[in-house]
Amino acid sequence: LTHMKKESHETMREFVAKFNKLIQKIPVIAVPTLENQKCFFINAQPPDISFLLQRSVIPDLATAQSTATEIEDDLILAGRIKKDIPKLKNQGSPQ
């Protein structure tokens, strides 16, 4: 979890699903506390989203994830993040 970062090509919803799937794969004895899971999630975000999450009152991981999704949606609407992020460099480029 400490090395997991949201990639620029994935949406927040994709990252949340990937993050939760990884948490579920960790053996019960080694699963981080809920507070640490929230911290790992926030630290895995790009700087602009991480900053906004850290300034908010976030009680748990689920709230952090929904807030991050809302922030990303707001940044997309404001034109600060591209809406259709290509998964492959050459995908969708004119030939």
TrEMBL record:
Annotated protein name in UniProt: Retrotransposon gag domain-containing protein
Lineage top rank: taxon: Eukaryota
